[in-house]
Amino acid sequence: MSARSQEDILYRDELTSLAGLESVQIHYTLTRSQPDGWTGFTRRVDDEMLAAIGPAPAEQPRAFVCGRTPFVERTADVLVGLGHNPLAIRTEGFGPTGGSTR
Fold it and tell me: To bridge 38 with a disulfide, which of 6, 15, 34, 88 should be the other Cys (CB 3.0-4.6 Å)?
């Protein structure tokens, strides 16, 4: 989970409840501000981070990537570049809300 600050973590309560499941791993990176004592990542998601925290491609994991479309596309590309099966990567991208005021 990538967020600008701890306050910006979406679905924090839901993610915390999932973190107790054996088959679920949740890692956080806070890109702009971190609370005192923060031990998580402090940068944008990158290939080194995904290689360090994710299961190896040989384990044939499923990956779910959700966020702004550029983030989703970049993260999925990195996973494929690390050797993950593209068919095992599920994505959901979104952009800014709103539209034409015509």
Answer: 34
Instruction: Determine the Cα–Cα distance for residues 89 and 66; give it in Å rounded to an integer.
Output: 11
Q: Cα separation of 19 and 7, whole Å?
A: 18
The 3-class SS string of the chain reads CEECCHHHCCCHHHHHHHCCCCCCCCCCEECCCCCCCCCCECCCCCHHHHHHHCCCHHHCCCEEEEEEHHHHHHHHHHHHHCCCCHHHEEEEEECCCCCCCC
What confidence tens digit (pLDDT) does each residue in 4-56 have? 999 999 888 998 898 888 888 889 999 999 999 999 999 999 999 999 998 99
- Taking the model in full, what pTM does it have? 0.80
**Of residues 53, 51, 33, 50, the one with CA closest to residue 42:** 33
